[in-house]
From TrEMBL:
The name this protein goes by in its record: Uncharacterized protein
Species: Dactylosporangium sucinum
This protein's UniProt keywords: Membrane, Transmembrane, Transmembrane helix
Transmembrane segments: 6-26, 53-70
Length: 72
């Protein structure tokens, strides 16, 4: 592995850790921080007229994520 690949892998690990910390903080009693599920729910409900823009964006994000990590 090159130094750049190690650096990118470390950044992904840090981002995953931060997601975990935020989720733990959000699930505490009386927390004002929304959980990841609540954020996804708000995004999924976003519409512009009859077009469900939030659902299209979420689908595109999952498509990109799957292609990026699983298509090799």
């Amino acid at each position: 592995m090159t130094t750049g690949q190690v650096f990118i892998a470390a950044l992904f690990a840090v981002a995953l850790g931060l997601f975990g910390v935020v989720e733990i903080v959000a699930r505490r009693e009386g927390s004002k921080v929304p959980t990841l599920g609540e954020v996804c729910g708000v995004v999924m409900r976003y519409r512009v007229g009859p077009l469900p823009v939030g659902r299209i964006a979420m689908f595109g994000f999952w498509w990109w994520l799957g292609w990026h990590f699983l298509a090799r």
